[in-house]
Amino acid sequence: ANFYRGEIMTDKNKYHSLAVSHETYDNLGKLSKNLAPGVTLSRAQTVKVIVDEKVKKLNGKLTKSISKSD
Q1: C-beta atoms surrounding 19 within 10 Å
Q2: Which of 52, 3, 60, 50 is nearest to 28 (CA)?
Q3: Which of 48, 24, 43, 46 is nearest to 35 (CA)?
Q4: Distance (Å, whole) CA 19 – CA 35
Q5: Would the pTM of this model clear 0.90, i.e. be above it?
Q6: CA-based angle 48:59:66, to the nearest 5?
Q7: Among 63, 37, 36, 60, which Cα is nearest to 48's?
Q8: Is the pLDDT of residue 70 over 50?
Q9: Residue 21: what are its φ and ψ, rounded to 5°?
């Protein structure tokens, strides 16, 4: 764990940041309250749920893109 001023920091090797428009950010906030009944998800959890659902729906039809940003 990384420590900063006595607090545990996020492991930067596990996460990437993502820039979205203000409109998308606002929509993520709305979705976060409606995807799981009785639970408000974080925006990060909301993105994960949506991406995981889409990947499952595509069921192996994804191909690895050849990109230097991957």
Answers
A1: 6
A2: 50
A3: 46
A4: 21
A5: no
A6: 75
A7: 36
A8: no
A9: -70, 165
Quickly list DSSP for the chain: -EEETTEEEP-TTS-------HHHHHHHHHHHTTSBTTBPPPHHHHHHHHHHHHHHHHTT-------TT-
Count of C-beta atoms within a 10 Å radius of residue 27? 14
46 and 31 Cβ atoms separated by less than 8 Å: yes
pLDDT, the chain, mean = 83
Residue 2 contacts residue 9 (beta carbons within 8 Å): yes
Find out whether 47 and 28 touch, Cβ atoms under 8 Å: yes
**Side chain identity at 36, as an amino acid letter?**
A
